[in-house]
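Batch manifest line 405
LIGAND: zinc ion
JOB: complex structure
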Amino acid sequence: MVRFLWLLLAPLMLSASSVETYKWSEGETYLMFLERLHLPQALYYDIDSDDQKLTEELRSGIPYQVMHDRNGTIEQVLIPVSDELQLHLYRKDGSFAFEAIPLIASTKQESITLSIQNSPYYDILKATGSHSLAHAFVAGFKNSLNFRRDLRKGDRLVMVYTQKYRLGSPFGMPELLVGMIEMRGGQHSVYLNSDGRYYDGKGRQVEGFLLARPVRSGRVSSGFTPRRFHPILKRYRAHLGVDYAAPRGTPILAAGSGTIIFAGRTRGYGNVIKIRHSDGYVTLYAHQKAFRRGMRVGKQVKQGEVIGYVGTTGLSTGPHLHFGLYKNGRAINPARVVQVTTKQLEGKALKAFTARKAELDALVDEALAHPESVMKKAEAINNACYIDPQSCRPLEKGENNETHQ
Ligand SMILES: [Zn+2]
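JOB STATUS: finished
ARTIFACT:
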């Protein structure tokens, strides 16, 4: 671990005399941030529109780093903007430059084995101190089991999950790979399949959060891309949503029932509505021509209800709906969730799932056999970028293969 941290921090130490970590404050916009730190507004107005849109993804609570030189002058700022990308503001030729670069992050596979004393949520929280982990486990079983009715004290649970780390601290939500809980003498498991959805042991989908398409007609003109390197521009790009091309004025439907938490105008997204749903999901509908009358903060909407009309307001090149989906503040691929019925895997898909299930069951057995130790498996750093922009590129698999102990 010591060596790992040193490798990440060494480049910072060479170029800066101090690195401080802050948390992004509630309600602060990127422009407000620049002003507060006396950074040039050109770091917004002179960057291209894709990058400008990225700055609207900043969310409260995100830890970011500011590096000062020996005189206390800002040298660099690193602000994570998603699970994959961070904004890098750095001093260059007497001024400041902007770039979006991959997040320095490593992913570890970990597991927890517990004997239930109170409730799965409470016991996981007590053992790990992590609301995120407790939430990830409970959400996996929400639609298939009734914990309150069927659990007995002493029943065991296992969760195997991956967690990202940035500068040595957990970052982002853990992803549950397999969860197992004993109930009335039987084992019940949910498995994360290669399609990104959760299934029970028989290959039946267990997730209950279903979203409808936000426009009836209209083709997907641009998909979800958490991070992509543009080989000609030599820059990193992200598209944290799905674009539906549709004629101006096409009705936009609420993808799920919920409460409007934002209805207004931003520079990047134009007229934009955000709806909060259950279980930490938020949907976003950008570039609208106009909202339907009565759409305002606090209003409850039903799935399928018209909320506004397709337009091209904000940073947009033609009429389309930019549809974003967030879980616990993190942008996720709407294609994973948008569907109208739950699925039963069949044929080839079921066969592939069964093989995957066997591997995941083996991890559960391993965790049950060694309940005293929280297993930590190291993985190679899957993307890393030191702060010299010239050398900034993602590492290949197997390259710079540190271990964490
Ligand atoms: Zn878009």
